[in-house]
Write a structure and sequence with these properties.
About 75% of the residues lie in helices and about 0% in strands. The protein is an all-alpha fold. It has two domains: about 90 residues, Uncharacterised protein YqeY/AIM41, N-terminal domain (Hypothetical Protein Yqey, Chain: A, domain1); about 50 residues, Arc Repressor Mutant, subunit A, CATH 1.10.10. Helix 5 crosses helix 6.
Length: about 150
């Protein structure tokens, strides 16, 4: 399971003394604990944090860091932007390899055919299948934009 790997990596980072890796791994573990607590509060005990949820959280954290890096670059704070991008790179280590845009486009076209989507009204069906099959392997915003453009043709 991915959570066990993350916790083991934290131990290894502490042993090696790499402060940036320790910091980002602790932030990730804290975000996972927050998710677990929110699930408990909603009485969704059957829903354990699985690898898909972990990947969603990691993707969210990466997206936050990329937005922050962009903001820092606009403010001419390249030192802080570099730190944010480095953290995003460290987090992406836990994700499966990302699909290229061409591969994603092919997958989206296949899913649209399988679901038999004809118009934008069918977008939710297509996105549901994409989320089930490609979660963590692509940026869902890019996938959503591809689906929207294909269905509006």
């Amino acid at each position: 399971m991915l959570i066990k790997k993350i916790k083991q990596d934290l131990v290894n980072h502490i042993k090696s003394g790499d402060k940036i890796k320790i910091s980002i791994t602790r932030l990730l573990i804290a975000a996972l604990k927050d998710k677990e607590i929110s699930l408990r509060n909603n009485q969704d005990f059957d829903e354990l944090i699985d690898d898909n949820m972990v990947m969603e959280i990691i993707n969210k954290m990466i997206k936050q860091r990329k937005i922050a890096a962009q903001t820092y670059e606009e403010a001419n704070r390249n030192d802080l932007a570099g730190k944010e991008l480095e953290e995003a790179q460290l987090l992406s280590h836990y994700l499966p390899s990302q699909l290229s845009e061409v591969q994603l486009k092919t997958k989206v076209e296949e899913i649209i055919k399988v679901v038999d989507a004809k118009s934008l009204r069918d977008m939710s069906k297509v996105m549901k299948v994409i989320k089930e099959n490609l979660n963590g392997k692509c940026d869902m915003q890019v996938a959503s934009n591809l689906v929207k453009s294909k269905l509006s043709e």
